[in-house]
Amino acid sequence: MKRVLIVGAGKGGSALLEILHNTEKMTIAGIIDTNPNAKGLKIAADYGIPTSTSLDEWVTEDLDIIVEATGEENVLEQLLEKRGRKTVVIPGSVASIISELMEEKESLLERLKLQTNNQELILNNIHDGMIVVNDQEIVQFVNKSAERIVGIAKEHFSGQDIKHVIADTRLPHVLRSRRKEVNQRLILENGKKVITTRIPIINDEGQVVGAFSVFKDNTEVMNLAEENTDLKEIKTSLEAIIQSSDEAISVVDENGIGIMINPAYTRITGLRETDIIGKPATADISEGESMHMKVLQTRRAVRGVRMKVGPARKDVLVNVAPVIVDGKMKGSVGVLHDVSEIQTLTSELKRARQIIRNLEAKYTFDDIIGSSTEMQIALEQAKVGAKTPATVLLRGESGTGKELFAHAIHNESDRKHNKFIRVNCAAIAENILESELFGYEEGAFTGAKQGGKKGLFEEANMGSIFLDEIGELSHRMQAKLLRVLQEGEIIRVGGTSPIAIDVRVITATNINLEKAIMNQTFREDLYYRLNRLPIYIPSLKERIEDLPELIDYLIQKINQDYGRNMKSIDEEAAAYLKNYHWSGNVRELENIIGRAMIYMDMSEEVIRKKHIPNLMSFAGTSQSLKPGTANQTLQNAMEQYEKQYITDVLNEHDNNKTRAAKALNISIRNLYYKIEKHNLA
Description:
By secondary structure, the chain is an alpha/beta fold. The chain is built from 27 helices and 25 strands.
């Protein structure tokens, strides 16, 4: 360790003293100055370093370095004369430079501190709220406006997981997606409505180090906009939209007199404003009754009514809705759709639905109909389960709505913004099912895609996957599924490295798993993993009191699907349906209501018993096959016998479709076709 003597305790010497005192490779032997009140002498005394006002007694042979910090040439000359042979003397100019550098450092630190304080002052005084989180979703900064808008003090923000402070926050999603979200609406837990922009923070190396959200309180503005329901102001604000819309729109007042049409309406019907405005609502109709007048009388919207309009008798579908302000009828709005355009749009919609079907859940708990005690118990269990990450096992007969529950559980969970993947385990061959569920590596088998392929478990990462007909899995697939549930990872076909996943698993079956375990067709360890949160969905005959509510819902649903305008079902028909045993459950009920509505006249609005097919033909009982019990054709008798025989075989094999198909000596695909054909459970 080098011994250093500092000569001069002024500005330069003091700076050198501070620097050398903090280094481990040098030790300060002492500091000398003729002025006993010099600054450096006081600092040295505080540090316990020897001081002196005399030069002679300190310049000895054991010194390695002498720093001349006085800047006086005669002092430097004396040091050079008196130094030891191995002692190095450093002139005062070096000390002066070091002193200047230290002053510049202190100045820069002060400026940086002032700049930081100014930035924080600015952020705290802007009107918009701001929250910053790191890559672990922990709050790092929150300004005063954010405290005011959210209604939570800063000390309850800082260092907290953002989800614990704002439950519906999307900042974690922005961290994962690395994409900004601009001008998004959000309703806070205190009821305030905000418009927020969320942006990821990415460093120069392309790594996400955090995210921030800037938001403003729009509660008052939005509330005022919602309260502004004056018809004249609505007409003024909507007129530009109506005129530029590609939808054919017509508007009438409360007396059924035309007050507005748009160019698209003229294009479809061939009628101009002079033909409609100021004229009765029937002026444009070539065939059919005025839906405007019907809506004004009933105060209820109509959808999908077919009619002919204009001089060219254009075939259109009409949707009409009432305009009601403060409980008073102010008119109605009609939208016409060209049937030829609808056919094109329908094909596009089918393709879109197929895509959506594999990406997201469509239904919520509000879509599940039933107020019976049995159904309410199942709903409560499902709602509790949705709030946990536990595996759910949905049990119940075919057609009871197990898939509907799976959709609703996903949509009620904190994974609702991520993918919802559905898989029917019985409808896919085992060799294909494995690669579909777990994916495969490049070259895993003949025909494998270059680069491999993600499996459905990977696609559903951070979301949910619904495995229907779980009881149909082979023992090998059951073992692979057990690994997913236990370890939270999968291995692709042909791969060796495990891939970690975070997936909510929802399963469903209509077979007796306990009996399957006894028959050694289902693994007991997998059963305990799946049965952590079992939910039994009652059959329709167990909740027959829900039948009227279900019928009303199905009528409205089928009205939209088939473009009908049915209102209700009469008491005799309802009683007739209530006495049926409904082996196919809600799916069978929808089939019966749909068949009844298809064959009804367009002008009929109430389903009567005469419209309902003979339910005995759906029962499939062996009694109906006895000679003389029914007046039916040979074809009908054969179909009823086939239906009953397939039912018996399925029951014998506990609804295991793979074993039933082998017993019937038909393919599994053919069995599924016959099950659908006969509406079998």
